[in-house]
Amino acid sequence: MNRKLILRLSLVVLVVSLMLVPGTVMAADGDDPVTALMIPAGSLTPGFLNSNTGGNIASSVYDYLFRINDEGDTVLSLAKSYEINEDSTVWTIELHEGVTFHDGSKLTSEDVVYTIERLMDPDVGSALLGTYGSLIDSVEAVDEYTVRFNLARADAGLDKKLTDYNAAIISSDYNYSELGDTQPMGSGAYRVDNVVPRERVVCSGNEDYWVEGSPKIDALTFLMIPEKETAVRMLSSGQGDIISDLSPDQYLRLQSNENVNVLNEQYAAPVMIDLNTDEEPFNDKKVRRALAYTVDRESLLQSAGFGLGTIGNDTVIPPWHEFYDDLGGIRERDIEKAKQLLEEAGYSDGVDVTLYCGSNIPPVLDVVLTVQEMARPAGFNIELHTLPRDMYYAKYWLQVPMSATLWGHREDITQMLGTSLTCDASWNASHYCNEELDKYVELASGTKDPDKRQEYFTRIQEILHEDVPALITMFKDYLGATSTRIEGFYLTQNWINDYRFIELKD
Questions:
Q1: For 40, which of 281, 340, 380, 400 is 20 to 30 Å away at the CA?
Q2: What pLDDT score does 408 carry?
Q3: What is the band of 424 on the pLDDT scale with cuts at 50, 70, 90?
Q4: Around Cβ 122, how many Cβ atoms within 10 Å?
């Protein structure tokens, strides 16, 4: 049988099977559950979330000390108020009283202490270990509803770091190591009724939720669809309500659909092509810089990103950021310069390397295909090894000479750096360590003075632009869509999209 015909038939079978699964079908009227169409998640347990899906589910099931609102501002959530000492080394946070977990237990300062200490524990190995482990000296319960963070160094942006999707506050009396992925339990607006791994998470509204007027719907289902194209078709045909993290071409197609409302949020989500600085050929800075000179960044943004994003200059700070420095201009394509650098590095006959990436993390594949073609004239022979997202993260990311990943936005840019490119970063796929960079990240994190912060961030950008531990050619806009029956849903820059105020149109 023709291979294309087999693929079409498989797609039809998948869609039909989804329509026959009880509780997963979306009609366009009535009080049916709101259905969010997501790619399959890896872990659902805070501390180990690594996907848009995990962040969306955590936003609904758990709560955070601080959140990002629909204006993009960091605002209080479980935190009722906070105070910072003069040198930004002690943060004292007062919690809302009357908040309960889904099992009926009270949320108190002891739960916050437990959450943060767990994230800092090297034996746990959470995604935030690199960020919190070196920053937070200790966290203590002052009284039942007051928590004090004692920092190892000054940090004026701790509130922003606490908006990370892995920083959900969890119960000190619940066994998350055994139940976190199968029976998630938090203090959020929705309780989990059922989890079918890699298929769906079925939730119902939490009638005891502490925020008045929320939730506004009774049922919410996260339906996991392996192929985003299938999910797009389902939304278009009324079998779903919400999609986030669309590819640019999917967003543009849905833009013309009268049954769909599209959403676009500008955020610092770089497509990072990490170059392992521990291994040949990328242990030589000249090779890394040579690759950087092969890319026409404006052309790449238009072809791979459909113009829905911003150009990158090989740093994690996008041009619209308040502390961006253009360093004299975006790096321009210069094939002769790239050839010269390769020759100086001893690769006059070119470089052969394999690049690993997830096949279903848009627009990563389009970016690397474009880079593959642009780099070839300079002598870079890049073989692509594409895998499903979960296999890529489990077996290859952080371990291979060259990999490409779409990073989620971090509200505090020093957290992005501390997670990806500092010496002790948990997700340092480049295996990059520059002590001068680490020093300036710490200085930028600790000062409130905007002029000093600009000075430090400029030096950070100079170092990364010169060393190129990661090729960062573009930042993707955060793109999503909802059915027209949905009101009150918005995208947030840190993937904790807010489902608490969703309403169904009459």
A1: 400
A2: 79
A3: confident
A4: 8
What amino acid occupies position 361?
I
Return the closest-CA partner of residue 185 out of 104, 249, 80, 274. 104
pLDDT at 31: 59
Write down the mean pLDDT value for the chain.
Answer: 91
What are the structural domain ranges in the chain?
A: 28-61+178-265+478-504, 66-161, 270-476
CATH topology of domain 28-61+178-265+478-504: D-Maltodextrin-Binding Protein; domain 2 (3.40.190)
pLDDT at residue number 426:
83
pLDDT attached to residue 227: 87
10 has a pLDDT exceeding 80:
no
**In this structure, how many other beta carbons lie within 10 angstroms of the beta carbon of residue 7?**
10
Three-class DSSP category at 472: strand
Contacts of 139 (CB under 8 A, 6+ apart): 112, 113, 116, 117, 147, 148, 149, 150
Other C-beta atoms closer than 10 Å to the C-beta of 88 total 18
State what percent of residues in the chain have pLDDT above 90.
Answer: 78
Question: Concatenated DSSP letters for 29-49?
Answer: STTPPEEEEEPPPS--STTS-
The CATH code of the domain at 270-476 is 3.10.105.10
Edge to edge, what strands does the sheet with 190-196 contain?
190-196, 200-205, 219-224, 34-38, 242-244, 478-483, 260-265
Taking only the tens place, the pLDDT of each residue in 146-168 is 999 999 999 989 999 999 999 99
**Which residue's structure tokens are 């000479």?**
401
Q: Which helix (H) or strand (E) holds 276?
A: none
